[in-house]
Design a protein that fits this description.
By secondary structure, the chain is α+β, with helices and mostly antiparallel strands. The protein has helices at 116-127, 136-142, 151-161, 181-185, 196-207, 254-262, 276-281; strands at 9-13, 15-19, 37-42, 71-73, 80-82, 85-90, 96-101, 162-166, 169-173, 217-223, 227-232, 245-250, 268-272, 284-287, 305-309, 316-318, 324-326, 338-340, 350-353, 363-365. The protein is globular and about 55 Å long. The protein has 7 helices and 20 strands. Strand 6 (85-90) and strand 7 (96-101) form a beta hairpin. Helix content is 17%, strand content 25%. The termini are far apart. The protein folds into 2 domains: 4-66 and 211-365, 3-Layer(aba) Sandwich (D-Maltodextrin-Binding Protein, domain 2); 71-207, Dipeptide-binding Protein, Domain 1 (Dipeptide-binding Protein, domain 1). The strands form 6 sheets. Strands 10-11-12-3-13-15-2-14 form an 8-stranded mixed sheet. It has a 4-stranded antiparallel sheet with strand order 6-7-9-8. Strands 1-19 form a two-stranded antiparallel ribbon.
Length: 366
């Protein structure tokens, strides 16, 4: 089995910076209206699609606001914490894992309660023949799936490998000992939970219309080549986001992204490393995370970026906030508000792509 460590390739430097106007703290300024829509400018990822299995991990950036995982990551320690799974247990031989699921969590769009059927379905989606997801190569061998298996054969093997005990308990029967299995159930990896009932109702065609999950943001629209828009889920089971809406804007040119940030047309942006000095010269302040990083979680922009936050929101705060996760620069997109899915804020500013990560789970702009 190919271990996750083989994907740990150092990518580059990622920093989060916030704009603080000179003298802003020295004199009173008029109060600004509460921010309703958080706007994020990012370089196009190459996968402008609602299908979670038809892109690599970095392509999940614009989908994570709506999605959640079985296992979360503690924003202060990087430790695994319960998310859609309340607990997990490994057998002595490391080949059987029993997962107890959280009750009462609802899918968006009235697709019902999250259950064990959705866990099995998630494994099917990531292992089906057309899947190109980063972790597909990890899951297929564990389910005994071969390269030439048909979609029917895949479904049969997944049904054998993911046993449903009842609505809130599943048992994974793996082909080999996998003591690090919990990592692949976590928000550091790719196994997002999507509705089996929705798939049964409309299959791939219905899935292509929008991203539907159990996360803190609900999908509103995707304009290919332009933007993706989400609205917050009121009274979300973990925490309601602070921002009513979250918008990802695709802006190809690094200079343009920086310009829109400085003009406060957007509030967060990834900035090319080559533009770092320009950003700092215009009032940006570099802020690094407090957690060590071993690798980048599921998303990142096309080029090693510098993340920036604009004007009135002067600094990044690591806390379970309401609206955004931070991957790059804002936390991690899991379920609680993650300020910005897409990366991690390493303590020393370095980021590795692929495998494991110790992310700043939720960073928010204030």
């Amino acid at each position: 089995m190919q271990r996750r460590g083989t994907r740990r390739v150092l990518l580059g430097v990622m920093l989060t910076i916030s704009l603080a106007a000179t003298g802003a703290w020295a004199q009173p300024t008029p109060a600004k209206a509460k921010l309703e829509r958080l706007k994020v400018a990012v370089a196009p990822l190459g996968w402008d699609t609602n299908f979670t299995w038809l892109q690599s991990r970095s392509g999940q950036l614009d989908k994570r606001p709506a999605l959640e995982y079985l296992v979360g990551i503690d924003r202060n320690t990087g430790a695994y914490i319960p998310e859609l799974a309340e607990k997990w247990e490994m057998s002595p031989d490391g080949k059987t894992w029993t997962i107890t699921l959280r009750k009462g969590v609802k899918f968006h769009d009235n697709w019902g309660e999250f259950t064990a059927r959705d866990v099995r379905h998630a494994v099917f989606l990531i292992t089906q023949p057309e899947s190109v997801q980063t972790d597909a190569g990890f899951w297929r061998p564990l389910m005994g799936i071969g390269k030439t298996d048909s979609i029917e054969e895949v479904a049969k093997k997944v049904a054998q490998g993911v046993e449903i005990i009842d609505d809130h308990k599943v048992v994974f029967h793996l082909t080999q000992a996998t003591p690090e299995f919990v990592e692949n159930l976590s928000a550091n990896a790719d196994l997002v939970m999507e509705s089996k009932a929705r798939w049964d109702a409309g299959g791939k065609e219905l899935y292509g219309q929008k991203v539907v999950g159990t996360g803190p943001f609900e999908f509103v629209e995707r304009k290919v080549g332009s933007h993706v828009l989400y609205k917050r889920v009121e009274n979300h089971w973990r925490k309601t986001p602070e921002f009513k809406e979250l918008e990802f804007r695709w802006v190809p040119e690094g200079v343009t992204r920086l310009a829109t940030l400085l003009a406060e047309e957007v509030h967060i942006s990834d900035v090319d490393r080559a533009l770092q000095k320009d950003a700092v010269a215009k009032g940006m302040q570099i802020v690094t995370s407090k957690l060590p990083l071993t690798a980048l979680p599921p998303l990142l922009t096309a080029a090693p970026p510098l993340l920036a936050a604009a004007g009135a929101r002067r600094h990044w705060v690591s806390r379970p906030a309401a609206g955004a996760h931070a991957r790059p620069g804002v936390g991690r997109w899991r379920g609680e508000p993650r300020a910005l899915p897409g990366g991690v804020l390493p303590r020393d500013g370095r980021v590795a792509r692929g495998g494991r990560t110790q992310p700043v789970e939720k960073a928010v702009v204030e």
